[in-house]
Protein: DUF4194 domain-containing protein
Amino acid sequence: MERDAHARLIARLLALRWLPREDAEARRLLVDLSFREEVESRLAACGLRLLDHPFADHIAVALAQSTESAVFETGGQWAATTIALPKDAIALLVILWALIILPKRERQLARANGEEGQMDMFGGVPGQLTADASRGIPENVLLEDYARLLGGRARITQFILPQLSRLGFIERRNKVIYEGPLLDLAFDYGEMAPRILQGALADLLRKQDEPRNTEGDAS
Structure:
C-alpha cells in the first residue's frame, strides 16, 4: 500500500485539480522529502510539475516547461491557455492576482521576515502566515476601474467572472471577489511581481490609492 501512496496523491491532484495544504497527503508531501521527490519524479515523467508556494493555501499540478510547446503550440500559433480563456479574461485574471495576491504576499513576507527561523525544511511556514486571509475586492470597485478596458460591465459580470469562478480562480460572495484555490498558484510570484510592480499595470494599480473625487465637497 505504501507504494500506492504516490500514485494516490497524484491521481487526486489530477482529478480534483487542487488540494488544501491541510490535507493529510498534501501535508506529507510538504514535510517528507523522499515522498516529495518520488511524487515530483513521477510528475516529471509525465511532463508535469508540482505547483506549491510556501504561503499558498493549496497545491496543484501544471505543465512542465519542457512540455509547454507540445501542448500550447498548435498550427504555428501559441495558445494562451488550455482552458479556453479569452484574452480579456486572462487580463482580468492578472489584475485580480495583482489586486488580491500581491498585497497578501507582501504582508506574509513582511511577517515571515520577522519570524525567520520558524520555517519548516520543505517550505512549510508558521500557520498564522499561511492562514493570512486575502482581502476581497468589491465588484463595483473592480467594474468602475476596469470595465471600460475589458469589454464593459455586462461582459465582466455575466461572462468573465463566472468563468473564473467555475475554474477555481476566484470566489464571489455578496458582490465581493475573493481568491479561489488556484489564484495564488496561477502565476509565479518571483517572475510576475516585478513585472507588475514596475510595468505598465503599476499605473493602473496606483489609481486604487488615488482619491476618486478630487473636487471640492460643495453640493
Residues 87-114 form the longest helix (28 residues). Residues 18 and 47 are 18 Å apart (CA to CA). DSSP finds ten helices and eight strands in the chain.
